[in-house]
Amino acid sequence: MFLPILFIFSLLSSSFASVQDFCVADLSLPDGPAGYPCKNPAKVTVDDFVYSALGVAGNTNNLFKVAVTTAFTAQFPGLNGLGLSLARADLAVGGVVPMHTHPNANEVIFMVQGTITAGFISSANTVYLKTLNKGDTMIFPQGLLHFVVNSGKTTALVLVIFSSPNPGVQFLDYALFANNLPSELVEKTTFLDDGQVKKLKASFGGTG
């Protein structure tokens, strides 16, 4: 587990020098563009810097057979102001994190267990694809479409590190089929036929 720690420190070392030791989030106050206001240092405890939820496997009983557990500032106040966040992804056999982007962050994934096929597509439509096993690490550059598929025979566990406290996310499937974008426009822009579009909209809860 040394690689994730090294990546965290490399991200921190590239940020601007802080004028104070830390700024633990005061979650009783509203979040803003620069993050949460700092908690009174006298009220900060060691528990603000410890988070245990990433040690618990998520429920993969869903359409994609995947569970993502996040460690953002709202769950982990000690991250406030550090310019990073984390997540855990559990993928059952055949599970998939479908094509999506993070508009606000680069992403580093570290394989804890299992085997996955992961990749991203550049703005020149070049595909970068690799099968990853335990101990492997891969980078998804900010804003590029990427995906993960459990291509092994056991559950896969992936640790994720983002270079932003708010990476944002947009899934291609949901953008096309989980809203009220008219089916006719989806058909024209994707070259899918009417039956395929309606089937996908039904699966993802879309209308139109």
TrEMBL record:
Chain residues that bind Mn(2+): H100, H102, E107, H146
Stored PROSITE patterns: GERMIN
Protein location: Secreted, Extracellular space, Apoplast
The protein, known as: Germin-like protein
A molecular function GO annotation: manganese ion binding
Disulphide-bridged cysteine pairs: C23-C38
One Pfam family from the record: Cupin_1
Cupin type-1 domain residues: 52-198
GO CC field: apoplast
Alphabetical keyword list: Apoplast, Disulfide bond, Manganese, Metal-binding, Secreted, Signal
CDD domains, A to Z: cupin_OxOx
Sequence similarity: Belongs to the germin family.
Chief location of this protein within or outside the cell: secreted
Residue numbers binding oxalate: H102, E107
Residues in the signal sequence: 1-17
This protein's record includes keyword Signal: yes
